[in-house]
Protein backbone atom coordinates (compact mmCIF):
# COMPACT_ATOMS: atom_id res chain seq x y z
CA UNK A 1 0.00 0.00 0.00
CA UNK A 2 1.34 3.42 -0.95
CA UNK A 3 2.21 5.69 1.93
CA UNK A 4 1.17 9.36 1.93
CA UNK A 5 3.60 11.95 0.60
CA UNK A 6 5.36 14.01 3.25
CA UNK A 7 3.87 17.51 3.02
CA UNK A 8 1.78 19.99 5.00
CA UNK A 9 -1.49 18.73 3.52
CA UNK A 10 -0.79 15.19 4.71
CA UNK A 11 0.04 16.34 8.23
CA UNK A 12 -3.08 18.54 8.36
CA UNK A 13 -5.10 15.31 8.14
CA UNK A 14 -3.11 13.43 10.76
CA UNK A 15 -4.80 11.42 13.47
CA UNK A 16 -5.43 13.48 16.64
CA UNK A 17 -3.95 11.57 19.59
CA UNK A 18 -4.52 14.16 22.32
CA UNK A 19 -6.46 17.41 22.49
CA UNK A 20 -5.53 20.41 24.66
CA UNK A 21 -7.39 21.11 27.89
CA UNK A 22 -8.54 24.52 26.60
CA UNK A 23 -9.66 25.94 23.30
CA UNK A 24 -7.66 29.13 22.72
CA UNK A 25 -4.10 30.33 22.28
CA UNK A 26 -1.72 29.10 24.98
CA UNK A 27 -3.41 25.75 25.51
CA UNK A 28 -1.14 23.13 23.99
CA UNK A 29 -0.63 19.41 24.17
CA UNK A 30 2.42 18.12 22.33
CA UNK A 31 6.22 18.29 22.43
CA UNK A 32 6.20 14.53 21.63
CA UNK A 33 9.12 12.16 21.97
CA UNK A 34 8.79 8.61 20.64
CA UNK A 35 10.62 5.41 21.55
CA UNK A 36 9.89 1.99 20.02
CA UNK A 37 10.57 -0.92 22.37
CA UNK A 38 11.19 -3.75 19.92
CA UNK A 39 11.13 -6.44 22.64
CA UNK A 40 7.55 -5.42 23.49
CA UNK A 41 6.53 -4.38 19.97
CA UNK A 42 5.21 -1.26 21.68
CA UNK A 43 5.66 2.44 21.06
CA UNK A 44 6.10 4.78 24.00
CA UNK A 45 5.29 8.46 23.56
CA UNK A 46 6.21 11.29 25.91
CA UNK A 47 4.17 14.47 25.68
CA UNK A 48 3.47 17.68 27.59
CA UNK A 49 0.30 19.47 28.68
CA UNK A 50 0.33 23.27 28.90
CA UNK A 51 -2.01 26.07 29.91
CA UNK A 52 -1.51 29.83 29.40
CA UNK A 53 0.43 31.85 31.93
CA UNK A 54 -1.85 32.76 34.80
CA UNK A 55 -4.14 29.73 34.35
CA UNK A 56 -3.23 27.25 37.08
CA UNK A 57 -1.25 25.10 36.77
CA UNK A 58 0.14 27.33 34.03
CA UNK A 59 2.86 26.76 31.43
CA UNK A 60 4.26 23.23 31.25
CA UNK A 61 2.34 21.83 34.17
CA UNK A 62 2.55 18.12 33.41
CA UNK A 63 4.38 15.60 31.22
CA UNK A 64 3.13 12.08 30.51
CA UNK A 65 4.23 8.79 28.98
CA UNK A 66 1.72 6.84 26.88
CA UNK A 67 2.01 3.33 25.39
CA UNK A 68 0.59 1.81 22.19
CA UNK A 69 0.86 -1.46 20.30
CA UNK A 70 -1.10 -0.33 17.23
CA UNK A 71 0.39 3.19 16.75
CA UNK A 72 -3.10 4.68 16.97
CA UNK A 73 -4.47 4.18 20.47
CA UNK A 74 -2.27 5.34 23.35
CA UNK A 75 -2.82 4.65 27.04
CA UNK A 76 -1.17 6.89 29.64
CA UNK A 77 1.09 4.86 31.92
CA UNK A 78 3.05 7.51 33.90
CA UNK A 79 3.13 11.23 34.57
CA UNK A 80 5.12 13.94 36.34
CA UNK A 81 4.14 17.47 37.33
CA UNK A 82 6.23 20.62 37.40
CA UNK A 83 5.75 20.77 41.18
CA UNK A 84 7.47 17.38 41.53
CA UNK A 85 10.42 18.92 39.67
CA UNK A 86 10.21 22.06 41.87
CA UNK A 87 10.03 24.04 38.65
CA UNK A 88 8.04 26.74 36.84
CA UNK A 89 7.65 24.59 33.73
CA UNK A 90 8.38 21.24 32.10
CA UNK A 91 8.98 21.02 28.37
CA UNK A 92 9.91 18.26 25.93
CA UNK A 93 11.32 15.08 27.49
CA UNK A 94 12.83 11.87 26.10
CA UNK A 95 12.51 8.19 27.05
CA UNK A 96 14.93 5.34 26.35
CA UNK A 97 15.45 1.76 27.48
CA UNK A 98 19.19 1.15 27.65
CA UNK A 99 21.34 -1.89 26.88
CA UNK A 100 21.38 -2.56 30.63
CA UNK A 101 17.59 -2.93 30.69
CA UNK A 102 17.10 0.28 32.65
CA UNK A 103 14.52 2.86 31.60
CA UNK A 104 15.76 6.44 31.50
CA UNK A 105 13.52 9.48 31.38
CA UNK A 106 15.39 12.61 30.32
CA UNK A 107 13.37 15.53 31.69
CA UNK A 108 13.86 19.21 30.96
CA UNK A 109 12.54 21.98 33.17
CA UNK A 110 13.39 25.43 34.50
CA UNK A 111 16.08 25.15 37.18
CA UNK A 112 14.64 26.72 40.35
CA UNK A 113 18.14 27.77 41.39
CA UNK A 114 18.96 30.13 38.51
CA UNK A 115 15.92 30.30 36.21
CA UNK A 116 17.74 28.54 33.35
CA UNK A 117 16.44 25.49 31.51
CA UNK A 118 18.28 22.29 32.49
CA UNK A 119 18.12 18.52 31.86
CA UNK A 120 17.95 15.74 34.45
CA UNK A 121 17.59 11.98 34.16
CA UNK A 122 15.44 9.53 36.13
CA UNK A 123 16.32 5.81 36.04
CA UNK A 124 14.24 2.77 36.98
CA UNK A 125 13.83 -0.89 35.93
CA UNK A 126 10.19 -0.20 35.01
CA UNK A 127 8.45 2.92 33.75
CA UNK A 128 5.86 2.86 36.53
CA UNK A 129 8.66 3.07 39.13
CA UNK A 130 10.32 6.18 37.70
CA UNK A 131 10.64 8.54 40.67
CA UNK A 132 11.15 12.30 40.11
CA UNK A 133 12.58 12.55 43.62
CA UNK A 134 15.53 10.43 42.47
CA UNK A 135 16.45 12.48 39.39
CA UNK A 136 20.08 13.36 38.69
CA UNK A 137 21.36 16.48 36.94
CA UNK A 138 22.70 15.78 33.46
CA UNK A 139 23.19 19.22 31.90
CA UNK A 140 23.19 22.68 33.46
CA UNK A 141 23.49 25.72 31.22
CA UNK A 142 26.22 27.76 32.89
CA UNK A 143 28.98 25.09 32.93
CA UNK A 144 28.44 24.69 29.18
CA UNK A 145 28.71 28.43 28.58
CA UNK A 146 25.01 28.58 27.68
CA UNK A 147 21.94 30.43 28.89
CA UNK A 148 19.66 27.39 28.72
CA UNK A 149 19.58 23.74 27.64
CA UNK A 150 16.39 21.71 27.08
CA UNK A 151 14.26 19.51 24.77
CA UNK A 152 16.43 16.34 24.55
CA UNK A 153 16.02 13.92 21.65
CA UNK A 154 18.18 10.80 21.14
CA UNK A 155 19.39 8.87 18.09
CA UNK A 156 21.31 5.59 18.44
CA UNK A 157 23.72 5.07 15.57
CA UNK A 158 26.30 2.25 15.43
CA UNK A 159 26.39 1.84 19.20
CA UNK A 160 26.62 5.55 20.02
CA UNK A 161 23.77 7.61 21.39
CA UNK A 162 23.50 11.16 20.04
CA UNK A 163 21.46 13.57 22.16
CA UNK A 164 20.33 16.72 20.39
CA UNK A 165 19.27 19.59 22.65
CA UNK A 166 17.78 23.04 22.27
CA UNK A 167 20.25 25.59 23.63
CA UNK A 168 20.10 29.32 24.35
CA UNK A 169 23.23 31.14 23.17
CA UNK A 170 24.32 34.40 24.76
CA UNK A 171 24.15 37.55 22.61
CA UNK A 172 24.99 41.23 23.25
CA UNK A 173 21.38 41.59 24.44
CA UNK A 174 21.81 39.01 27.23
CA UNK A 175 21.87 40.66 30.66
CA UNK A 176 21.68 39.77 34.33
CA UNK A 177 17.90 39.99 34.27
CA UNK A 178 17.39 37.85 31.19
CA UNK A 179 16.17 34.91 33.28
CA UNK A 180 13.66 36.87 35.36
CA UNK A 181 10.80 35.53 33.23
CA UNK A 182 12.08 31.95 33.76
CA UNK A 183 12.19 31.46 29.98
CA UNK A 184 14.99 33.30 28.22
CA UNK A 185 13.95 31.75 24.88
CA UNK A 186 10.92 34.05 24.95
CA UNK A 187 12.76 37.32 25.63
CA UNK A 188 14.72 38.09 22.46
CA UNK A 189 17.89 38.20 24.59
CA UNK A 190 19.45 35.00 23.23
CA UNK A 191 19.63 32.89 20.07
CA UNK A 192 17.97 29.45 19.95
CA UNK A 193 20.21 26.74 18.44
CA UNK A 194 20.94 23.01 18.64
CA UNK A 195 23.66 21.35 20.72
CA UNK A 196 24.92 17.75 20.76
CA UNK A 197 26.13 15.30 23.40
CA UNK A 198 27.19 11.67 22.83
CA UNK A 199 27.29 8.52 24.95
CA UNK A 200 27.89 4.79 24.55
CA UNK A 201 25.81 3.76 27.57
CA UNK A 202 23.18 6.48 28.16
CA UNK A 203 24.90 7.07 31.48
CA UNK A 204 28.02 9.11 30.70
CA UNK A 205 27.68 11.97 28.22
CA UNK A 206 30.32 14.02 26.41
CA UNK A 207 29.29 17.51 25.34
CA UNK A 208 30.17 18.19 21.67
CA UNK A 209 29.04 21.80 21.41
CA UNK A 210 26.61 23.70 19.20
CA UNK A 211 26.07 21.93 15.85
CA UNK A 212 23.24 23.87 14.16
CA UNK A 213 22.63 27.57 14.71
CA UNK A 214 20.68 30.36 12.99
CA UNK A 215 22.52 32.43 10.43
CA UNK A 216 20.84 35.71 11.30
CA UNK A 217 18.51 35.98 8.34
CA UNK A 218 15.42 34.38 6.85
CA UNK A 219 12.45 32.56 8.32
CA UNK A 220 14.70 30.74 10.82
CA UNK A 221 16.91 33.71 11.77
CA UNK A 222 16.25 33.23 15.50
CA UNK A 223 15.62 29.51 16.04
CA UNK A 224 17.03 26.28 14.61
CA UNK A 225 16.01 23.47 16.98
CA UNK A 226 16.56 19.90 15.74
CA UNK A 227 13.70 17.71 16.92
CA UNK A 228 14.45 14.37 15.25
CA UNK A 229 16.85 12.78 12.78
CA UNK A 230 16.12 10.17 10.09
CA UNK A 231 19.04 8.16 8.60
CA UNK A 232 18.37 7.69 4.89
CA UNK A 233 20.57 6.55 1.99
CA UNK A 234 23.86 7.39 3.69
CA UNK A 235 22.76 10.79 4.99
CA UNK A 236 20.98 12.13 8.04
CA UNK A 237 17.88 14.27 7.66
CA UNK A 238 16.72 16.42 10.56
CA UNK A 239 13.31 17.94 11.16
CA UNK A 240 13.93 21.24 12.89
CA UNK A 241 11.82 24.03 14.37
CA UNK A 242 12.50 27.48 12.98
CA UNK A 243 11.36 31.02 13.70
CA UNK A 244 12.35 34.49 12.51
CA UNK A 245 12.33 36.00 16.01
CA UNK A 246 11.46 35.24 19.63
CA UNK A 247 7.95 36.52 18.91
CA UNK A 248 7.31 33.14 17.28
CA UNK A 249 8.95 31.25 20.12
CA UNK A 250 5.84 29.19 20.85
CA UNK A 251 4.59 29.02 17.26
CA UNK A 252 7.50 27.60 15.26
CA UNK A 253 7.22 25.88 11.89
CA UNK A 254 9.23 22.93 10.57
CA UNK A 255 12.25 22.91 8.26
CA UNK A 256 14.56 20.14 7.05
CA UNK A 257 18.34 19.92 7.33
CA UNK A 258 20.92 17.38 6.15
CA UNK A 259 24.24 16.09 7.48
CA UNK A 260 26.73 13.35 6.70
CA UNK A 261 28.29 13.20 10.19
CA UNK A 262 25.58 14.40 12.65
CA UNK A 263 27.75 17.41 13.50
CA UNK A 264 27.71 19.62 10.42
CA UNK A 265 24.23 20.50 9.24
CA UNK A 266 22.90 22.36 6.20
CA UNK A 267 19.33 23.62 5.89
CA UNK A 268 17.44 22.24 2.89
CA UNK A 269 14.70 24.81 3.44
CA UNK A 270 16.49 28.20 3.60
CA UNK A 271 13.68 30.05 1.84
CA UNK A 272 10.88 28.93 4.13
CA UNK A 273 9.45 26.12 6.22
CA UNK A 274 8.45 22.85 4.57
CA UNK A 275 5.77 21.79 7.06
CA UNK A 276 3.18 24.13 8.57
CA UNK A 277 -0.40 24.15 9.73
CA UNK A 278 -2.97 25.94 7.54
CA UNK A 279 -4.66 27.28 10.69
CA UNK A 280 -4.18 30.29 13.03
CA UNK A 281 -0.43 30.79 13.68
CA UNK A 282 0.48 28.08 11.12
CA UNK A 283 2.64 26.42 13.76
CA UNK A 284 3.67 22.80 13.25
CA UNK A 285 6.50 21.88 15.58
CA UNK A 286 8.34 19.24 17.61
CA UNK A 287 8.23 16.68 14.80
CA UNK A 288 9.50 13.27 15.95
CA UNK A 289 9.82 10.80 13.08
CA UNK A 290 10.79 7.27 14.15
CA UNK A 291 11.30 4.64 11.45
CA UNK A 292 9.47 1.47 12.49
CA UNK A 293 9.39 -1.62 10.25
CA UNK A 294 10.46 0.48 7.28
CA UNK A 295 7.71 3.03 7.82
CA UNK A 296 8.14 6.69 8.77
CA UNK A 297 5.71 7.70 11.51
CA UNK A 298 5.50 11.36 12.42
CA UNK A 299 4.30 12.72 15.77
CA UNK A 300 3.92 16.48 16.02
CA UNK A 301 2.29 19.47 17.69
CA UNK A 302 -0.24 21.19 15.41
CA UNK A 303 -1.88 24.65 15.58
CA UNK A 304 -5.66 24.55 15.31
CA UNK A 305 -8.13 27.18 14.09
CA UNK A 306 -8.88 28.24 17.68
CA UNK A 307 -5.19 28.95 18.37
CA UNK A 308 -4.67 25.92 20.61
CA UNK A 309 -2.30 23.06 19.69
CA UNK A 310 -3.12 19.36 19.59
CA UNK A 311 -0.94 16.25 19.28
CA UNK A 312 -1.17 14.35 15.99
CA UNK A 313 0.44 11.46 14.14
CA UNK A 314 0.64 10.34 10.52
CA UNK A 315 2.44 7.72 8.45
CA UNK A 316 4.51 8.95 5.50
CA UNK A 317 6.90 7.89 2.75
CA UNK A 318 10.35 7.01 4.08
CA UNK A 319 11.94 8.38 0.91
CA UNK A 320 11.31 11.97 2.09
CA UNK A 321 10.29 12.85 -1.46
CA UNK A 322 11.69 16.02 -3.01
CA UNK A 323 13.47 16.93 0.22
CA UNK A 324 15.94 14.06 -0.20
CA UNK A 325 16.74 15.17 -3.74
CA UNK A 326 17.73 18.60 -2.47
CA UNK A 327 20.49 16.97 -0.42
CA UNK A 328 22.33 15.66 -3.50
Q: Overall mean pLDDT score?
A: 95
N-to-C SSE string, H for helix and E for strand? HEEEEEEEEEEEEEEEEEEEEEH
Taking all Cα atoms into account, the compactness measure Rg is 18 Å
Per DSSP E runs of 2 or more residues, the count of β-strands stands at 21
Number of domains: 1
Largest sheet: 5 strands, antiparallel
> What is the CATH C level class, in words?
Mainly Beta
Helix content: under 10%
* Low-pLDDT ranges: none
Shape: globular
What is the CATH fold-level name? Answer: Tachylectin-2, Chain A
Q: What amount of the residues lies in strands?
A: over 45%
Structural class assignment? mainly beta
CATH architecture assignment name: 5 Propeller
* N- and C-termini, Cα separation: 28 Å
What is the overall number of helices? 2
In short:
By secondary structure, the chain is mainly beta. It has helices at residues 8-12, 321-326; strands at 15-18, 28-37, 42-51, 59-68, 75-81, 94-97, 103-110, 117-124, 136-139, 148-157, 160-170, 190-199, 206-212, 223-232, 235-243, 253-259, 266-267, 284-288, 291-292, 295-303, 309-316.
Structure description:
With 328 residues, the chain is mainly β. 3% of the residues lie in helices and 47% in strands. It has helices at 8-12, 321-326, and strands at residues 15-18, 28-37, 42-51, 59-68, 75-81, 94-97, 103-110, 117-124, 136-139, 148-157, 160-170, 190-199, 206-212, 223-232, 235-243, 253-259, 266-267, 284-288, 291-292, 295-303, 309-316. Strands 1, 18, 19, 20 and 21 form a 5-stranded antiparallel β-sheet that branches. Strands 2-3-4-5 form a 4-stranded antiparallel β-sheet, with no helix packed on it. Strands 6-7-8-9 form a 4-stranded antiparallel β-sheet, with no helix packed on it.
